[in-house]
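Quick one, probably user error.
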């Protein structure tokens, strides 16, 4: 499955992000019981940020991805 989104659709500054959860797996402690979420993707401060919860702690691992120079 492939999703292609525009930055404004997942703007963290507007509180919009793409949340991915798979029931039955470790997730964000705040969401673990009702709506598990292991991955959250947002466009924030000009970068793509990917947050991943693996159950090892309350804070996610975060990867920030820089934009390409030939952005459409």
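Nope, works fine. Designed sequence:
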């Amino acid at each position: 499955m492939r999703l292609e989104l525009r930055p404004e659709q997942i703007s963290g500054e507007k509180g919009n992000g793409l949340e991915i959860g798979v029931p039955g797996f470790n997730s964000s402690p705040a969401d673990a019981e009702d709506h598990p979420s292991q991955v959250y993707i947002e466009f924030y401060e000009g970068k793509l940020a990917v947050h991943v919860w693996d159950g090892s702690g309350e804070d996610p691992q975060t990867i920030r991805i820089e934009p390409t120079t030939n952005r459409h």
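The chain is about 0% helix and 30% strand.
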